[in-house]
Amino acid sequence: MSGTVIAALVDVLQIHNLFASAVGVVFGLFIGSTPGLTISLGMVLLLPITFKLSAVTAICLLLGLYASGMTGGSISAILLNIPGTPSASATAIDGYEMAKKGRAGEALGSAVSSSFFGGMFGLACLASISPFIAKVALKFGAPELFALVLLGITLICSFGQRSVIKGLISGVLGLIVMTVGLDPMMGTPRFTFGVVDLQAGISFLPAMIGLFAIPQILVGIAGKVPVIPEYNSKITSVLPKIRDIIKLIKAMLLGSSIGTGIGAIPGAGGPIAVFLSYDYARKISKKSDNFGKGEAEGVAAPESANNAVAGGALIPMLTLGIPGDPITAILLAALMIQGLVPGPLLFQQTPQFVYSVFWAFLVANIMNLCLTFSTIKLWVRVLKVPERILLPIITSLCVVGTYALRISFFDTGVMFCFGLLGYFMKRYGFPIVPMLLAIILGPNLEEHLRISLIISQGDPTIFITHPISLIFIIISIFSFINPLITPAMKTKLKNICKIWYR
Amino acid sequence: MKKLNIIISIVFIIFSCFYAFLTTNLPARNLPNTLGSDFMPWLLVICLFFLSALLLFKTLFMVTSEKCDYKISMKEGSGIIFLTILVFLYVKAMNMFGFISLTPIFIAVLMFISGSRKWKEVVIVAAVVTFGIYFFFSKVFRVPLPEANIF
Q1: In a domain, B102, yes or no
Q2: Using CA atoms, how far apart are residues A301 and A309, in angstroms rounded to an integer?
Q3: Cys-Cys with A33: which of A25, A143, A297, A379 at CB 3.0–4.6 Å?
Q4: Are residues B36 and B84 in the same domain?
Q5: Are residues B15 and B38 in the same domain?
Q6: Per-residue pLDDT tens over the stretch A63-105
């Protein structure tokens, strides 16, 4: 056991892995600090490169990006009042007010320190809880696994979406995409229309790059909608004093706890965590009146929360194979590229890799702290890079990146088709994450469903006679029905109240 | 939004019927106690049809607070079509002219339509990015990028 842990540490501390982590952190800071570019986009741009790397090097690179992208998002939130990532939304409230009062350096310092604290807290929870969840999940059979994947997809479809029905339609469309290619159990071709390239199915990588990157390119280049505003200001010192950090400990602890908890719930995501932590920090603070007017605690709580979300979201991804947000969905895809299948078996079959993930996350957080403090003035300048330069570069990277997957332009075509689909889906209020998750998890869903029905000789009650499977299915149904009935119930309650007051 | 949702739900109902038609061509169950290749597609046909009908019902008979800017301007629409054609031509011509000679032109055109008017900036960015991508993919990761095949 301890030998495996040490071997994993030695592996992560190899010079090429440290270099990969540093590259990931620098790229993450660039992506995070540039409004309009998301961490998910950064991840999909790096995915084709991970093909050529070992599993540990790839995870060092991607976790570096994940950790620093969250921190980078706060730079533009504080300086421009435009969050670089959705998770930095709450940071902008007090961070920007501090910057307006000439305390931009203090705000950035608080944000970076809190991000580090949140990241470490999330990692501690990840390392201590994951092995136990994996142990329990090892007892799951096909019906439980089917119900679990179904739960993951329905939670993502329904949680925080404007329209649950549209979220579910998006998920079903993703599952339909997944049915193209050879049937995983019988080997029969399905919906291939005689096209040889379609026999292997539609790879989730071009779909992912298309869904995340192309809509942004289309909006920026074709729509000519500015996403990167201009910024003119100077930053002095950003290193916070120890006594200032101690004053923020309560807010950071609160934010980290909420962030880890929310992050571990599939579908909940960072934006919910940061606003919840901001709200609770305001309620328990002695300076609650200063919130919204430039209070450092108002920066510390959401910033620690958004980095703690990363650790929390990795828990269901690593232990159950269910990603908590789009970023962990891409991480899941990256591991699948390496031939690793996240889930309880990962802990049993490749424990050294699991510990490597923990160490890589630790290294990423430390590198993030050091590199952000030492290069923050550079990232402030990055805000000035015009999108007329950035967007053509991203377009070229997408084309070459998808070509490099199988040395074929077929994937580039698939990427662009999904890009157009993603653009129209976004435009017409359809979330793209459920589709993405369905494409990634779809084959598992079908396999477990069919195995379960073979075991039960076609009897569907197998899913309700297994208690754990029944619980997951009840939660899935509830997550689907709840948002549909809640508005109707609210209207009914309002009417009752009106009658009551009359 | 109401009108748009009605159109979308009808489109998806038609699509689910088309998908059902395609599914009828798949081989059904041929072994006892197993499920055929058409099992999952049929399940998805039912789900998509049900959800589209639900969206239609909800839009017609229930109040919705959903709002979105669904109108695509002429400028944006033509921009999307132009970009699609540009990427298509770039990909198609790549096997003939090669990555090195075509990519700077592609980047320069993209920069121009993004609003870049300084020719020095366009030339430098196009050349540096092309060389950077070529070096990174071709030399570091040994991915064979398309070469000129015209002669």
Answers
A1: yes
A2: 12
A3: A379
A4: no
A5: yes
A6: 999 888 888 878 877 876 666 666 777 787 788 888 777 777 7
Q: Which of B15, B30, B61 is the C-terminal boundary of a domain? A: B61
- How much is the ipTM here? 0.90
> Could you tell me if residue B150 is inside a domain?
no
Alpha-carbon distance A293 to nearest alpha carbon in chain B (angstroms): 31
Verify whether the Cβ–Cβ distance B22 to A172 is below 8 Å.
no
What token pair was written down for A497?
A: 């109240």
* Residue A68 backbone dihedrals phi, psi, to 5 degrees: -80, -30
- Mark whether B79 and B136 lie in a shared domain: yes
Residues B46 and B83 in one domain: no
Alpha helices per DSSP H over A138-268: 142-158, 164-178, 204-217, 242-263
Q: Are A365 and A156 in contact (CB under 8 A)?
A: no
Strand (E) or helix (H) holding A335: helix A326-337
- The verdict on B105 and B134 lying in the same domain is yes
Residue range A306-334: average pLDDT? Answer: 84
The span from the CA of A91 to the CA of A255, in Å, is 12
In total, how many domains does chain B have?
Answer: 2
Domain of residue B11 covers 2-61
**Residue numbers of A between 368 and 387 with CB closer than 8 Å to B:** 386-387
- Residue B99 phi/psi, 5° resolution? -65, -45
Residues A286, A292, A294, A296, Cα dihedral to 10° = 50
Tokens found for residue B107: 């980047």
pLDDT in tens, A430-473: 888 788 888 878 888 888 888 888 888 888 888 888 888 898 88
- Count CB pairs under 8 A between chains A and B: 157
Do residues B78 and B135 share a domain? yes
Q: Which long-range contacts (CB under 8 A, 24 or more apart) does A473-481 make?
A: A473/A147, A473/A150, A473/A151, A475/A151, A475/A155, A476/A147, A476/A150, A476/A151, A476/A154, A476/A155, A479/A151, A479/A154, A479/A155, A479/A157, A479/A158, A479/A159, A480/A154, A480/A157, A480/A158, A480/A164, A480/A168
Same domain (yes/no): B44, B81: no
Same domain? B82 vs B128 = yes
Considering only the beta carbons, identify the residue of B41, B55, B146 that sits closest to A169.
Answer: B55
pTM: 0.77
| B145 domain residue, yes or no | no
The pairing of strands A181-182 and A189-190 is antiparallel
Q: Cβ contacts (< 8 Å) between B125 and chain A: which residues?
A: 389, 392-393
Select from B21, B38, B61 the last residue of a domain: B61
Q: Which residue of B has its CA nearest to A171?
A: B48
- A31 is written with which tokens? 């992506």
CA R_g for chain B: 24
> Does A397 sit within 8 Å of B133, measured CB to CB?
yes
Asked if B111's CB is within 8 angstroms of A392's CB, the reply is yes
